[in-house]
Each structure stands twice: as C-alpha cells, then as structure tokens.
Design a protein that fits this description.
CATH topology of the largest domain: Rossmann fold
Number of helices: 18
Shape: globular
Helix content: 25-40%
Number of strands: 27
Strand content: 15-25%
C-alpha cells in the first residue's frame, strides 16, 4: 500500500498558482548575463514541451532522457516529461559514448533532451539514430531533431496531469563504482515521502535560496535542490562553470548548502592557500574578533548566509568539522543512498557526537543484521532495479528493508556509526579482515592529502595510496619537501597508533596521478573507484609492501 503524501506535480501546480510572478530559477547565460524564470514561466514552458511530447503519441510511461549539466531547463524538461505521462532518465553529463549507449539501450529511451555539455562530440555516438533529440536553450553545437524554441511555438497543455502515487517517475542510474550501473526505479510517492518529511525536518521555505552545482542526475541534488525547491518554494541559482564557481556561490548566497566532503576540503585548502594555518588559528582564537573574522572567511566563500550546511557521500574528518565550527558553520552529516532517495539519516543541530552520523530521519526504520549490516525501510525505498529482478531481490529483504551494504552500529540515542563497506572489506595474508573506509578517514584529515585509498587484499599489511593536494604537490617540488615528508611520516605514526596491529599501514605511497572523473578514477559524484585504482597500481603492490620506508614517491620509481 502506498502512503498518502502530496506528490511533486501537486506541489508545483499550487506554487505556480499562488505566486506565478515569483522568481524561481536563476540561470547564468554567459558574459555576465542572467536569465530569471518565474514559477509561471516555468509552468508555461513545461506545458508547451509536454504538449510536444504528447504529440509524439508514445506509449504512456515511455522513457525520456535528460543529458545535460545543471541548468534551469533540466528541471523544466523533467516537469514536462512528467506532465506528458512519461518517465525521466537522467544521465551524467560526462559519460563516455559507450556508457551513454548502455544506459539509453537498457532503459529503452525514445527521446533525449540535450543541454549544457562540454564533451558532446565524444558522447553523441552513444545516442542511437532512432532516439529523437531535443536541444535545450543552452546546448552544444550539433544536429538535433528539434530545438527548445520550436517546442515553445506550440500551445501549452490545458490540463494539469496528476500521476498516481505508485506511477514510475524516474529511473536513476547509479554512478557505477563497480561496473555497469543499475537503474533505480522511484515512483512519485517515493519522492513525495522523502521531500515532504525533509522539508518539515529542516523548516525551510520560500525565502530560502539554493545553489545547484552537483549533478542533478544524482539523487542528492535531485532531492536537496529540485524536490526541495518544489516542496518548499525555494529559489534555485545555477552555477555557470568550475571557473566561476566562487562567484556563483557569492551571487546566490545560499541559505541551504549541500556538498560532498571533497568540496568542503577544497574550500578549506583554498583558505589555507591564502593564509597560513597558524595565522588563521590565531585570528580565530581572538576574543570577540575571532567570530567576526570567521564570518569574513565564510563571506569570502559565499557561505555567510547558510542556515543548514549538509555533507554526504562519505564521512567528514572530525578536524574538518571542527575547523568549520570555528568559522561559525555547523556541518550536518547526511547518510542515504540512491535506492532510498538519499533519505535515511541526518545529524540534528546541537546533537553532534564525534564519529557518528546522527539519528534516522522521520519515518525511517533501522535495524542492524546479524552480519552487522545497516538495513533501512521507509516510504522512500525504491521499487527495485529496472529489468533486474535478481539484483532487486538481493537488495531488498522479504519484509521490505533495503540492504545498504554498509556495516554499522547504533547507540542508545539511535545515532548511527558506519564501520565500513561489507564488500570493500579485504583480507590480508595474515587472515585478518580490514575495513578501509575508517582508516582513509583518519588520513584525510591532513591538509596536504586530497584523496586516499587503502588497499591490502593479499598483502601482509595494508598500504595507503594518496594523492596530494595542489599545495602539497607544489611543496613536493620545492624546498618545503622535507617538512612535507616529516609531516606525512608523523601522520602515519599517529594513525597507526590508533589502529589494531592487523590494520596498521605498512607505508604511505604518494601516487603521481591525479584521480579525476575524466581519467576514470572517480565516479561522477567524486567517489573513488577502488577497482580502477587497484587495476592501475595492483602490479606494484607487492613491491611497495616489501619496502620498509614509511613514505614512497611513485613518480620517482625507475622505469
């Protein structure tokens, strides 16, 4: 039975009717120009596009793709797809042509909206000739079956379609850390359950502002930006590019801001690149003036208006949480998955417990299995994986709990702590099991380490593969190298002192490569792909394990 909640289009129609002239979407158009769209204008454009889709006479529930970086018309296209009675299939804007082809063929996509993209010539071969392509207002050069302006020449639909709660709304393909992505099916009730509860939990409303910059095709941005704006009436500002990001952030001055730990780390490193840590600590420690200075630092980042600062996808090192707290910004950690709309756990303000995420969200049931796996159940749990009955049965228990794949524990207050991934745990040659994630989190506190991956399957002791930050790489090639090396060796000793003997790291390996989405080391959501990293360096693991030096520079190996 589907829980009775208000659904996304119901909310959209209400906001469109209540304040049609209120600003909703703010889109940079290049050259300093901005396009502001009201709720009424968004509804008008969506209805005209829905009419064009209806005229194609596709079967109800046909899959329609959105291939674009974040932009105002990404959301308008999503609304149009729903109004026309179809299912939206968002794709990451930086996929290879082969990955695009896999998803489009698997989902049996009939139409694709093509928007803001950097690498369209490389992606385009993945779009089959039978798929009708529509160019959004911001689009790459190329040939398309129709342009957005052409869709807008038609009349808008005259009705306000209200899909059933159990009707499929979207198929979200996971970012594929271990191979072919799975298509997560969510109906309108899933979105409604998660969004309505989340808005109530945070108490946000029409006066709040959001900045959209993480991929909208990912469940986090879909919920924290698209659904949150529809359910709370917030204004969405869009980022123009990586180069203009800080300017975009200052322009938006968001009141709610979600980021992954790597973004929070980059902000931190950016501040330290302009001001030495010792001087910053001194200024923040001054009575009265310290608070004023902290607000200035936040204003420089565009974060001085933030009421709720959220972080998800991976743990945030406690030192980084404390650093932001000194600035006057309390980061609240969020835990969730694509399979439950990202709605599971969040740390409540003032209830932070070091090392713990926080309590389960309203309406979410949690249990820990005999194997130590965290399992959750709520109205936001997926309907299953598209065309994957066997994988769906593996992911969902008979009584409807989602197997998260995360190991964890709960305290008496219901706080959750994750202790590793069940499938990521590896066994050393000593027959001992090691969970890499907690160790990686301890290493990530160092302000010269940007990324880390702990490996050790079949080795006597684990190794830590690390990528230095931009500042760290600069110091490595200068007179500051000795200080950097001493600091990293101290870090290794301090981390090992906190670990059981079988978990202790043999050494830190500073790899010469920069792990990025473009070279395949990271998923589009900036998570490391362990299988790719192990494939790239695996043949050297034994050699690195035999060396007893605590620090090794990959780029200094003899060819």
């Amino acid at each position: 039975m589907v829980t009775a909640v208000r659904l996304p289009l119901d909310w959209f129609y209400e906001r469109e009717a209540q304040h049609p002239n209120k600003r909703y979407l703010v889109q940079p158009m290049g050259g300093g120009q901005l396009q502001e769209l009201t709720w009424g204008e968004v509804g008008e454009q969506a209805r005209r596009a829905a009419n064009w889709l209806r005229a194609l006479e596709l079967p109800q529930g046909s899959r329609v793709a959105i291939i674009s970086k974040n932009c105002a018309h990404w959301i308008i296209a999503d609304l149009a797809i729903w109004m026309a009675g179809h299912v939206s299939v968002p794709l990451y804007p930086n996929l290879t042509a082969e990955s695009v082809r896999q998803v489009l063929e698997h989902a049996e996509v009939q139409v694709a909206f093509i928007g803001k993209l950097d690498e369209w010539p490389a992606m385009a071969p993945g779009v089959g000739e039978h798929i009708r392509t529509v160019a959004l207002p911001l689009h790459p050069h190329g040939r398309f079956h129709a342009m957005w302006d052409e869709l807008q020449e038609g009349s808008p639909i005259q009705d306000s379609p209200r899909p059933a709660a159990d009707q499929l709304a979207t198929i979200i393909y996971t970012s594929g850390t271990t191979g072919m992505p799975k298509g997560v099916m969510h109906n309108f009730s899933n979105f409604g359950f998660a969004a309505s509860h989340a808005i109530e939990l945070f108490g946000v409303g029409p006066e709040d502002r959001l900045l959209s910059y993480l991929p909208l095709c990912h469940v986090a941005e879909r919920m924290f930006v698209e659904m949150a704006s529809i359910y709370a009436g917030q204004t969405i500002f869009f980022a123009e590019s990586l180069d203009t990001f800080v300017h975009d952030l200052k322009r938006a001055r968001p009141t709610v801001f979600f980021a992954v730990p790597r973004i929070w780390t980059k902000f931190h490193m950016g501040v330290l690149a302009k001001m030495p840590a010792k001087r910053l600590d001194f200024l923040l420690g001054l009575p009265l003036l310290g608070k004023i200075f902290g607000r200035k630092v936040l204003a420089g980042l565009g974060l001085d208006a933030v009421k709720f600062a959220l972080s998800g996808a991976a743990p945030v090192p406690k030192e980084l949480l404390n650093w932001y707290r000194r600035l006057g910004l309390e980061l609240q950690e969020v835990y969730g998955m694509t399979e439950n709309c990202g709605y599971s756990h969040v740390c409540r303000p003032g209830q932070y417990r070091e090392g713990w995420i926080g309590q389960n969200c309203p309406g979410v049931e949690v249990r820990i299995s005999e194997q130590g796996e965290v399992q959750v159940r709520s109205g936001s749990t997926m309907q299953g994986y598209y065309k994957e009955a066997e994988k769906t049965a593996d992911a969902l228990t008979v009584d409807g709990f989602l197997r998260t794949g995360d190991k964890g524990e709960q305290d008496e207050q219901g706080n959750l702590r994750l202790t590793g991934r069940i499938k990521e745990i590896f066994k050393t040659t000593k027959g001992k099991y090691v969970a890499p994630a907690p160790i990686e989190n301890k290493l990530a506190v160092h302000d010269r380490i940007e990324q880390v991956c702990v490996v050790g399957d079949g080795l006597p002791q684990p190794l830590a593969l690390c990528v230095l930050s931009e500042v760290g790489r600069s110091e490595a090639g200068s007179h500051a190298r000795e200080v950097l090396e001493a600091s990293l060796k101290r870090l290794l000793a301090e981390v090992n002192a906190e670990l059981d003997q079988h978990e202790q790291l043999q050494r830190i390996v500073l790899v010469k490569d920069i792990w990025a989405v473009e070279n395949g080391f990271l998923t589009p959501t900036l998570k490391i792909k362990r299988n790719v990293i192990e494939g790239a360096y695996g043949e050297r693991f034994q050699q690195w394990a035999e060396n007893r030096d605590p620090l090794h520079w990959h780029d200094e190996e003899h060819a």
